[in-house]
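Case study B.
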Amino acid sequence: MDKLHDKESQPSAPARGGGAGKNGDGAERHEAIYRAISDAIIEHQLLPGARLREDALAEVFSVSRTGIRKILQRLALEQLVTLTPRRGASVTRPTASEARDVFAARQLVECGLMPDVARRITPEDVRDLRQMARAERDALGRSEKSRAIKLSAAFHERLGELSGNAALAGFIRQLCSRSSLILAVYGNTGHLGCESHDHDDLVGYLERGEGTNAKAFMQRHLREVEASLAVVEEQAGAPDLHQIFGLGGH
Amino acid sequence: MDKLHDKESQPSAPARGGGAGKNGDGAERHEAIYRAISDAIIEHQLLPGARLREDALAEVFSVSRTGIRKILQRLALEQLVTLTPRRGASVTRPTASEARDVFAARQLVECGLMPDVARRITPEDVRDLRQMARAERDALGRSEKSRAIKLSAAFHERLGELSGNAALAGFIRQLCSRSSLILAVYGNTGHLGCESHDHDDLVGYLERGEGTNAKAFMQRHLREVEASLAVVEEQAGAPDLHQIFGLGGH
DNA sequence: AAGTGTATTTTTGTATACAAAAAGGGGCGA
DNA sequence: TCGCCCCTTTTTGTATACAAAAATACACTT
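Model:
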């Protein structure tokens, strides 16, 4: 999937004067903008419900609305943003049933993949995973919640890639992104995403090729993460009336 | 070409609220166009490799290229069409490894869902499924291959919906669409998609709430479908050199 | 006659302009 | 003073215009 590295060594640095005009040809630029917005959402810099006005984004990234719309549409298909017909784009606020579905899907897919991962994993993969788990633990130790959440998602996504199945890896990637959103809405401040040494322990099982154990562990792990959420049907916590009566009356 | 004839058939009643398009407002119109193209691909009216030029589609559907591009982008994200940077859109030609991945994913997800479906299914659902299975068998009997393929995909998609998990249902929908493409490339003319009475038998298991049996049956069913394919790494049939040396580096 | 380089034509990529709809604000009337 | 309606402003939806790149055709050279 990393075809974007083909032209990384672009010899001619476009010496475009104006500070606004950035370099990089269109496709890569769009990809970068997509990732910037996506990351901001996953890291909870943009919270669910936040409005994403096309003009504002176009100005921030110095492109026209056309490109922004394309990116917004892609994010909408990945369920990270919600596109309301004449109302524009906003960061998706997952419903309780969506949260249930996402975690049920992760239970099925991520657990089902553990045996494959245990069979295919290489020592380098183990090293990478260990490093990711450590970075995540460090972030948690420093109470960098956003960073920890992102790293946790990245860990699970990496596991998906290690399955060797691109279709499933893509699906897992999407599920992990949505999980970040779910955490933003239903997350308990006291109980962060994937806590403790779960990820380290999981790598241990995988390293020893114990697929069945890894699967069971992942099952428990995901169950714990979901149980730590305060998933209530109605958001009684901080219901801003604008959302309910202004926009939500659809 | 005469571009001025875009709206020749437009009754043009700008009386009030000026309907944006002909019938149905913009969003529904786009949805209809999306479905038309999507169906054409799934039914093998548009074969893998077929070019989808924006201008041509825009003229056919009497909309501007803007809307077509949006639809094409969505189809690309669903992997039904491939968007090559300065080359435009074409119906995706699945590779052998993609075919493997898609069927492995279906094995995991569709089979894993059978217990849930068996638990949740209602008599009306059973009736619907039976009817779909019958329509498919009829189409097969009349050698309407395209129609049978589409109905088979619809059957599996319906099963996904019956799981009650929207996230998984969407994923299955995508996998089934891609399976149609795979069938178009690697399908054996003699051995059509889901043959015999498999679907009927499956409904029987589900109706009786035998989730485990349904799961095992689905496993065998998907294995048979995949086994009926002639998945070879290289397409020996019509290897156009443009594909191999021009684009096909991957 | 074959191959290569160039010009034309087609086709995509991007920005901008224009129109419709919704949100917000202010004025008018009761 | 409060409530309702209209007008302005903001924001999205769509089409079109223009530019860049690729495909194609053609001519010229060897």
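The CA atoms of residues 142 and 148 of chain A lie 9 Å apart. The remaining cases will be described in the next quarterly update.
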